């Protein structure tokens, strides 16, 4: 399986603090793997809200693919720092990378890469990336 392409920690320009819940642990007393997808989604919401690209908590895109590498066991009831970076802008899709770190120790719990596709909610079909969407991301990330 191909590993996600994760930029160096210094390249991440967006960070948000979140908290896991004690009930997010599975029966092995580690953070359940599905919780990481929710953390990535919460990071996306904060990222695109900061850019002014989310209206009424509705994303203008859908998640197409995610590749997660679990590095160390996470815990419930912990403060975490999520880092997000858009690494590629296409015509109808874009790629983001994420890192999940325990906030106080800085220990890396997981990293991931996701492909997201812009879509028209009325038709359910993918659509071209609007220029203002591209510009806002490119400006934050220093992308062409």
* Overall spatial form: globular
* The CATH homologous superfamily: Hotdog Thioesterase
Strand content: 25-35%
Order of helices and strands: EHEEEEH
Poorly predicted regions are none
Helix content: 10-25%
Q: Provide the CATH top-level class.
A: Alpha Beta
Annotated CATH architecture: Roll
Overall residue-averaged pLDDT value: 96
Distance between the amino and carboxyl termini: 30 Å
Structure description:
The protein is an alpha+beta fold. The chain has one domain: Hotdog Thioesterase (Thiol Ester Dehydrase, Chain A). It is built from 2 helices and 5 strands, in the order E-H-E-E-E-E-H. A 5-stranded antiparallel sheet has the order 1-3-4-5-2. It is globular.
Supply the key terms.
2 helices; 33% strand; 144 residues; single chain; alpha+beta
Short recap of the structure:
The chain has 144 residues and is α+β, with helices and mostly antiparallel strands.
Strand and helix layout:
Blueprint: E1 14-19, H1 33-50, E2 61-70, E3 79-89, E4 93-102, E5 108-118, H2 131-141
Antiparallel strand pairs: 1-3, 2-5, 3-4, 4-5
